Amino acid sequence: MNYIKYSFRIISHANLAKKSLRTLRLIFILLISSFSFAQNGKSVSLQKAIEMAKSNNINLKIADKEIEKQTALKKTAFQADPLQVQYQGGQFNSVDYDHNISVQQYFPVGKITKANRQLQEELIRLSEKRKALSEYAIEKAVTIAYYQYLYGVSIQKLNNELDAIYTKFLKNAELRFNTGESGNIEVISAKAKVKEIEMIKVQLEFDLAIYQKQLQFFVQTEENIIPDSTTPMQFSMVTAGSKSKVESLVTDYYQQQISVYQKEANTFKAMRTPKLGLGYFAQSIDTKFYYQGFTAGLQIPLLGGVNTARAQASAISISQSELELDKNKLTLKLQMQELKNDFDKQQKALDYYQKDGLHYAEQIITTAQKSYANGDMSYWAYISFLNQAIDIKKQSAEATNAYNQSAIQLQFPSISNN
């Protein structure tokens, strides 16, 4: 159980006493208001919380910008060299000072433009696959936080139930003491237990405030949202397709990486093709501009070893991604087996408490209360049976929480190295 610790330093100097008291009152009010957030916020369903998280999440917005950026870069597929403008002046025809102005432009030929465009399209798809992985992680985080809050609510309800039981017990103990049927020890013990439950109630309010802020953090909203109170405490797992979904996400991501490296290799190979240049010149002879013409040329990459090496490096990257995919598939397979075993274990425990445990606990409490009220049971026997029933209910709540955590993990297996 999580606790928030606050410490207060009270200055004993007389002229600061009133100020210190006002400060304590203000802090107390702030604490109470923080508790109210945990129970009086905006109620949302799990699906609505996930939708809000995907809409508000900063990382997903950054991913959208990355997709937008890669889409804008498609316009760079056609990459012509800078325009070359050259001026020449001097006595290169006669004693007169003549002028020569030339303009030349080299253009890519062959498959380089197509290769660049295909590479950029694959980069766009890779950004989309990466965003899908982020959405998966957000959905898992919101679901865990959502059911953690519901667990806190269930513990709070159990504590309220205990409060009602021990309040009733205190009344019976006081009645028996007043009639001389029992000693004062029963009253003192009952009062101590009621005070303990009141203290735990405050702690649980702190816990709910923490759980609410955790959920709010993952949803990334300024609203004080809380889970819908009608949501069942037990997580309803969708077993069909859960494995195939995460497998599909992992496979699609790494296969897209492979596609990027393939197109990258094609781009480097296409860079080894010549470039075509076209030009125009105008020249004066004897200071008269009556002469002009056109030029054509090729840029031939005689030393193409750099692009060949880059293409080879891209081919190696393809092999790396294939190995990463195989590793993640194996890791996911083993993880699913482990998670399934843990889920089966938690489900068996939960089945016991739902079918038998809670039923026994209610019978123990009801029978013990009647017997104690009628004087058929001693104080120590009553406390023993009551503690047994309470322990069963606590274990049931913990079993439900353990089941939920196991089910959520099985629903959303972890994806590593992404």
From TrEMBL:
Q: Name one GO cellular component term.
A: cell outer membrane
Annotated compartments? Cell outer membrane
Per the database entry, which stretches of residues form a coiled coil? Answer: 109-136, 329-356
Under the heading SUPFAM superfamilies, the entry gives:
Outer membrane efflux proteins (OEP) (SSF56954)
Give an example GO molecular function. Answer: porin activity
Name the principal localization, coarsely classed. Answer: membrane
UniProt keyword terms in alphabetical order: Cell outer membrane, Coiled coil, Membrane, Transmembrane, Transmembrane beta strand
Q: Which domain of life is it from?
A: Bacteria
Q: Does the keyword Cell inner membrane apply?
A: no
Q: What is this protein called?
A: TolC family protein
Lineage, top ranks: Bacteria, Pseudomonadati, Bacteroidota, Flavobacteriia, Flavobacteriales
